[in-house]
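Lecture 7 notes: from sequence to structure.
We start with the chain below.
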Amino acid sequence: MTFLPNIFIFIIGAIVGSFLNMLIYRLPKDESIWKPRSHCPQCKTMIPLYRNIPLLTFIIQQGKCVECNKSISWQYPIVELITGSIWFICFTIFIPIHALMTALFSSVLIALAWIDLKTMMIPLSLIISGGVLIVISVIMGTLEWQWVLWGALAGVLIPLSMMGITYIVTRRQGMGWGDIQLGLILGAWLGPWNMALTLFLAALLGIFSWVGISFKKGFDRNRPLPFAPYLVISAVTMFFLESNIGFWFDSFLLL
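Predicted structure tokens for the same chain:
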């Protein structure tokens, strides 16, 4: 791709990120995603289109609402930047149809992870959306149905086993059922061996994060920690690395 189309893809991704911000704000509140139009969460003033440009609006308005002068959360430009960057990367390294499906699936994961980070919940609607994208990918030939079935099985059984072991050792539920549902769609997308690597990496990230938080806020063995963000970071990393070892094993299973 030339530079100009890549910039265009980034802009599309940033626009998608703006939509994700709306989902992140409204889904936990059970609000309609269709109405009312975009508005300031502080003063509720409707935001016209010319003041709703991803990234640029935040920069031009210096991170504040024009009407009430209250600060706009940094979440908005960060989500737009991350989403735009992922779309850019997808269309740089994958063929168009694979890039589109990976970018859309990654966008669902971004919203899902951010909501879990803020609320410790994973909306079922986003899990279903991810499942629909997987079915479409199978129909379009970007995913092998055998890969999807084996991966989905691994994505459920491995986290369930981890949950069981954690409960036996600590008498606490280490993961929520939303994490199991997330494991289902991630495994279906990644395949069994890449899903196993994703879970291992996510567990490491979670441990490092827990240790860091404990140093800062004090040790608390009952401190809850959302697992979805670490799963999503690990999964997106696997999307782009496409581990040769994992894909060799997947090819063996498809024989």
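Points to note: The CA atoms of residues 198 and 237 lie 8 Å apart. Residues 243-248 have pLDDT under 50 and may be disordered.
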